[in-house]
């Protein structure tokens, strides 16, 4: 006669093996190499600096100034 096995344990082992196989497939399909990630970070930094340097400042109107002053109940913010 064969060995006695716990079916729950066998199901867990099978599920874990399937998940590991699927994870490996995903790493191959969707993974990026270190240089790819570094290049992406450099591009994002360059784009962020470009946008910050070329940002247009919003002109505040008199109504905005009034709103800012009224939102400071203790008058601590300089005018």
TrEMBL record:
**Positions of region (Disordered):** 1-79
Please give the Pfam families that the UniProt record associates with this protein: DUF4169
Q: Where is the composition biased (Basic and acidic residues)?
A: 16-25, 34-61
- Would you say which domain of life the source belongs to? Bacteria
Q: Return the InterPro entries for the record.
A: DUF4169
Stretches of Polar residues bias are at 62-73
**Protein name listed in UniProt:** DUF4169 family protein
């Amino acid at each position: 006669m064969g060995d006695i096995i716990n079916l729950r344990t066998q199901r867990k082992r099978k599920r874990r093996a399937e998940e590991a196989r699927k994870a490996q497939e995903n790493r191959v399909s969707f993974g990026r190499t270190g240089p790819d990630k570094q290049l992406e970070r450099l591009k994002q930094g360059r784009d962020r600096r470009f946008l910050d340097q070329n940002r247009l400042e919003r002109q505040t109107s008199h109504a905005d100034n009034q709103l800012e002053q009224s939102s400071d109940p203790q008058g601590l913010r300089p005018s």
